[in-house]
Amino acid sequence: MKKTSQMDCVPQSERKHIVITGRSNVGKSSMMNALIGQDISIVGDAPGKTTESVKKPMELHPYGPVILIDTSGIDDASEPGTRKLSKTIKAISGADFVIVVIEAQERLNKAEKEIFSYLEKLSIPYLIAVNKIELGINGELLQEIKKMKKIHFEVSCKEKVGITEIKTKITRMLPSDIEPRLLGNLVKRGDIVVMVVPSDICAPKGRLVMSQVQTIREALDEDTIVIISKDKELRSVLDNLKKEPKLVVTDSPSIMRVTADLPDHINLTTFSILMARYKGELSEFVRGIKRIEELQDGNNVLIAEACTHHSLKDDIGHVKISQWLRLYTNKNLNIEVKYGEDFPDNLSDYKLIIQCNGCILTRHNMLSILKQAKLMSAPIINYGVLISYMHGAIPKALLPFEEAVFEWKRKTSPVHLQL
Asked: Global pTM?
């Protein structure tokens, strides 16, 4: 029986993703094989040998478990090459670190400079591997790299020169793990937290939705006093408490009723906004608010649902958000709903992306989606921020989060339509 190592037990979603990219036939697959110490990727003389991303988990000493991703070439101008480029950019957007492989005898071209631009826009750390030095080095290439002040290593994957140095540098440049928490900085031991959980026809029978379960579990782990209430019972709950709650968390569609029953000085937020901070970047979703006010007749809007399910008559994504957005903007919008984790390739065609709360997504998945939207200059917002805004609960629902309040203050709040 094969012995299972500790590394094998770490799921891919929890590993740091190291993406290897570059032009066709520069030695990306050879770089992957050299880093792993095994012949995993196919290496050949014909350009464009790798047409699909190849993934391989490995232990990067002394850092720990990572996953290496070998991508297709970035310079093929043919129709298949266009598809490759899209997949390469998607792979890069999900990266924690990138190795850009360049052939030592060449000069930097437009595609490579665009990759540098993408990486810097997304603040993804990277280095350049100048490969095939056994065949000679173009001095002008090194001058270009040094002039641009890029970190680079001169290597030979074939002769295993410089590989150890690259590994050492990667371990120093990889982002450190900071485990986010749903209620981090918001509550402490002994605080009262009221969770407003209305009946949700979209939730599985007899169960709560995942965001509610996770928040309740973490509140208990923080040794807070957790009280569960329906929206129509909140006023009675507050009247019977001897001590005011530190925080009230509600389901987004109930935000108006909860706001009406809650004193202004008690902190309020939603499960969706908590998830936005936990799995993504809350400030990025707050930035998406501005685009709501700029929508015009005929604009394309994408509603992105991570999971696939049958749409019910009151489905929040497929039905309610579409209705509310059209009512709020009073515009004839082209609203498209997509299911599954993959974004369309044509994100730049959408004036606004509305992302679900990502209950089934990992933080890595959500950050990848945000980066893809950023690369395509497509404003993005999540369900919770959008619903709270259209119902007039912003900035109230953002007040517990300093970074979100700061972002909100950078824009002028318009008059809200009462829905």
From this structure: 0.79
